[in-house]
Amino acid sequence: MLAAMGEFDLIARYFTRQPQRALLGVGDDCALLQPRPGTQLAISCDMLVEGRHFFADVNPESLGHKALAVNLSDLAACGARPLAFTLALALPAVDESWLSGFSRGLFALADAHGCELIGGDTTQGPLNICITVFGETQGQALLRSGAQVGDDLYVSGQLGDAHLALQALLGKLTLPADLLAQARYRLERPEPRVALGLALRGLASAAMDVSDGLVGDIGHLLKASGVGATSQAAALAPLLGASAHPAWPGLKQQALDHVLAGGDDYELAFTAPASAGDALHRIGEQTGLRLSRIGCIEAEPGLRLRDAQGQALDVAARSFDHFRPAS
Ligand code: ADP
Ligand code: MG
Questions:
Q1: Which helix (H) or strand (E) holds 118?
Q2: pLDDT tens string 262-284
Q3: What pairing do the DSSP bridges indicate for beta strands 312-313 and 302-306?
């Protein structure tokens, strides 16, 4: 229950739109989705908590974008086409300027992916945003568990910028203004790789999105597949984003750390047999994303990182875990 404007006025004003594909949207006790014959629903849920996942003063339009983006990223990782989402929202108070910015960012991304808001819950409380997305797969969902010995290991785009921005915003390092703006954009406006996920169906043997740091996330994929991998440090160079910028020599040594252990990247990591190489090249061109081959899948469990001399580098998983303090 929210006082002031009133819970139902707020829902009607900011979160109600005519359903397009759903049989029933906002307004009844349930929404109704009609799965097409031969399809499965792919479902994922992500919660964003103030102070934990975003700063209290973050631009509400960016927050609306990101709240949905992190969920669409999970659909992308499964090769699912976005259909609809629900929004559970706890708000400290009714702030109309915040609500209009938030809903603008949310719906801009939703519209770009044909994903409609079909329901939710609204309550008074510390700012908390929980979205559940529904997507569609056709028997070709990409899973974490399909990597095979001999497959190549790939990552899309660049990693580390979001983590770099977060460190700067926390005052732990200083960045030139233009570099901070670039990195901050990646932190606040991640672009879910939905088109890539769809294109990888039937081609990738396993996939996941990179949200908690490359080393930890790839560790999950390797474990789910019962395999391991070796990666050459040099192969990670194309993944460096702002942290490799020549204008900022301060970070050269740490750049790899940001790539390996940073979070909030929302790129896709996936495996594919060597025979998929040409098709992947075309997909990279079509999606405008660099697809970097960073290693190969082996039977020996775990992720190994080697330098140019073949020496093992320490990848002691510094991935993110909400209930374990960072090392
Ligand atoms: P109920 O009491 O049956 O759970 P509510 O009174 O909480 O339903 O909500 C009324 C309608 O508004 C429902 O259709 C619900 O899905 C929708 N709704 C509530 N909050 C939101 C929101 N933040 N975004 C979209 N729809 C919402
Ligand atoms: Mg009800």
A1: strand 116-124
A2: 889 999 999 999 999 999 999 99
A3: antiparallel
Q: Is the CB of 89 under 6 A from ligand 1?
A: yes
153/169 Cα distance (integer angstroms): 32
Specify the residue for token string 């990101």: 66
**Spacing, Cα 25 to ligand 1 middle (Å):** 10
- Which protein residue's CA is at the shortest distance from atom 11 of ligand 1? 27
**Which residues are placed with Cβ below 5 angstroms of ligand 2, an ion?**
29
Please report which confidence band the pLDDT of residue 327 belongs to, taking 50, 70 and 90 as the band edges: very low
Q: What is the mean pLDDT of the chain?
A: 91
**Ligand 2 midpoint to CA 106 (Å):** 24
Task: Output the CA 131–ligand 1 centroid distance in Å.
Answer: 13
Residue nearest to atom 4 of ligand 1 (CA): 29
* Angle value at C-alpha 82, between 215 and 28, nearest 5 degrees: 125
User: What size, in residues, is the chain?
Assistant: 327
